[in-house]
Amino acid sequence: MEKNPTWTCVVALALCGGDGRWLMHRRPQNKHHGGLWEFPGGKVEIGENPSLALVREIKEELGLQLTLEELEPVGFAQEPPNATTAQLVILLYKASWSGAPIEALEGGAIGWFSPAELVAIDMPPLDIALARGLFEKALD
Ligand SMILES: Nc1nc2c([nH]c(=O)n2[C@@H]2O[C@H](COP(=O)(O)OP(=O)(O)OP(=O)(O)O)[C@@H](O)[C@H]2O)c(=O)[nH]1
């Protein structure tokens, strides 16, 4: 069997506001996938638990202090494995937020979208799959 040991685990958050809209983060232009909208989150560090990594990333990116109990796993998506770059595997969690307004603390922008709006914005390929899975029931 062919071996492909290099992969990167990314954790991401589908955050639902009190009005049923979902938060997305627009990546700064100078980064990989610059200008595209993604679920906030980031890479899991070596030896780190995925949900704790997401709590850390969300605190850094949005200033929100989530608890592990608030995070519900809702799906994952992965790139096809390839020999030249580490395969991205994204674990998506869901949580709700109705507290203070949120800002993007590390650059880029945030926006809130209804499910129908969210599936129409510019996203990387894996986010299209994640968003479809997230809203499968709601959009049927
Ligand atoms: N956070 C996040 N990253 C995503 C999503 N979809 C997707 O393809 N990615 C990609 O996954 C990678 C995550 O890297 P990142 O740059 O957000 O993570 P990080 O802050 O921990 O890493 P860094 O410090 O190396 O920049 C990027 O290549 C990003 O474009 C998504 O929905 N959320």
From TrEMBL:
GO molecular function, a single term: metal ion binding
Q: What EC number(s) is this enzyme filed under?
A: 3.6.1.55
Question: Which ranges carry the Nudix hydrolase domain?
Answer: 5-136
Among SUPFAM superfamilies, the record links this protein to: Nudix
Q: Which UniProt keywords apply?
A: DNA damage, DNA repair, DNA replication, Hydrolase, Magnesium, Metal-binding, Mutator protein
PROSITE patterns reported in the protein's UniProt record: NUDIX, NUDIX_BOX
Pfam families linked: NUDIX (PF00293)
Instruction: Name what cofactor the protein needs.
Output: Mg(2+)
Q: Which family does it belong to?
A: Belongs to the Nudix hydrolase family.
The answer to whether UniProt assigns keyword DNA damage to this entry is yes
Taxonomy-wise, where does this protein's organism fall, top ranks first?
Answer: Bacteria, Pseudomonadati, Pseudomonadota, Alphaproteobacteria, Sphingomonadales
The record lists the catalysed reaction(s) as: 8-oxo-GTP + H2O = 8-oxo-GMP + diphosphate + H(+); 8-oxo-dGTP + H2O = 8-oxo-dGMP + diphosphate + H(+)
Q: Name one GO biological process term.
A: DNA repair
Protein name, entry field: 8-oxo-dGTP diphosphatase
